[in-house]
Amino acid sequence: MNKLTKEYPFIHIYPQQKPRQPAIIKANTEGLCVLLNAIVSTIAQPERNGIAEVLDGDAEVYEVIVRLVNTHDELAPLPYQKQ
């Protein structure tokens, strides 16, 4: 079994596919720290999005964007609903 390299933040976020299904986050410690920092940054500066640059399971770089919202409309549309 290959261990994840500790120098890189690996994270994979599995979204809900239907209502009431759990969302799943799998990550190494570094990935969780980068995500936590993005969350804290968003709380500290609500006018800005927190951004975590991470690697997925295929070692592809992508961004996780953390956005503070205050209304139901800002939460919509739900990712598992057809648009």
Description:
The chain has 83 residues and is an alpha+beta fold. It is 24% helix and 24% strand. It is built from two helices and four strands, in the order E-E-H-E-E-H. The protein has helices at residues 29-44, 72-75, and strands at residues 11-14, 24-27, 50-55, 61-66. The chain has a two-stranded antiparallel ribbon with strand order 1-2. A two-stranded antiparallel sheet has the order 3-4. Strand 3 (50-55) and strand 4 form a beta hairpin.
* Percentage of residues in strands: 15-25%
Number of strands: 4
Radius of gyration: 14 Å
Low-pLDDT residue spans: none
Features:
83 residues; alpha+beta; two-stranded antiparallel sheet; two-stranded antiparallel ribbon; 24% strand; globular
Mind sketching the topology for me?
Layout lengths: L10 E4 L9 E4 L1 H16 L5 E6 L5 E6 L5 H4 L8
Antiparallel strand pairs: 1-2, 3-4
Summarize, please.
With 83 residues, the chain is of the alpha+beta class. The protein is 24% helix and 24% strand.
